[in-house]
Amino acid sequence: MNNFWKDKKILITGGNGFLGRHLVNKLLQKGIKRENIFTPTFNECDLRKMENCLRAVKGKDIVIHLAAVVGGIGFNRQHPGKCFFDNALMALNIIEAARLEKVEKIIGIGSVCAYPKDNIRIPFKEEDLWNGYPEETNAPYGLAKRFMLVQSQAYRKEYGLNAIHLLMVNLYGPGDNFNPDTSHVIPALIRKVDEAKKQGRKYIEAWGTGKPTREFFYVEDAAEGIILAAEKYNKAEPVNLGSGKEISIKDLAELICKLMGFKGEIRWDTSKPDGQPRRLFDHSRAEREFGFKAKTDFEQGLKKTIEWYKDSLKRI
What we know:
CATH class of the domain at 3-173 and 215-245 and 279-296: Alpha Beta
Helix content: 40-55%
CATH topology of the domain at 3-173 and 215-245 and 279-296: Rossmann fold
Order of helices and strands: EHEHEHHEHEEHEEHEEHEHH
Strand content: 15-25%
Shape: globular
Number of helices: 10
Structural class: alpha/beta
Radius of gyration: 19 Å
């Protein structure tokens, strides 16, 4: 076990979610005892209430804040108020609670959605985060994440709180959210293809034009990046975490169809928004500061995600 984790009490908000479950497994593999990892559910600990945050943080050494209200473009368009208020309030409360309870370190998870839509270099560099307004369909969520960074930096400066902030691109992998109302693009496409095959349909429908590009980050790599940052990074500046690979939504859809053996048509609904034209991170800071580099081949990661989805249907 790395000495950093020895005898530490660890609170993971959102620890029962997609990324949280993988992070817990990674920590267990490192030899950390399960009784030292605390993962309260929403029903047990609504982080929008300060008293719950104080209770959850009390006696903990490390806080990893993963909890978020998040979904794809459709969810963000339908619930902009919730995406802003709930995410901003949870961060405000958990960071303030960490300060009051004198937590050793807090790791906040931000998002690519915080980056500007326009006037930004490709790949995105951390110093460009404030160079414009986020893409409109996810701006409320992205701005809530920016505010978490501001709070972390302000608390470090005034109170000496060791708060770090990691910016992540879209995650995917086994255990992802396949709910059609709230899922992101990869699980949404996998489900559409699977259902089209079962129903004998000759096409699937996808949002937008297919032209935008995205960077996708395998969830186990993301968990490893968080652990390395927790162990080794102690600075105010935010850090990008991602895979370094870019793919268009059109190519992604075609690849998923190929991997799932679907030979039908992809019909693009251009009445639906594309979102930001391109998303790709510069990862040099993560590699330089704490030696992180993603390892998972994208096609292999997709295959594992598809297999998990198929196996999950058998368990129902």
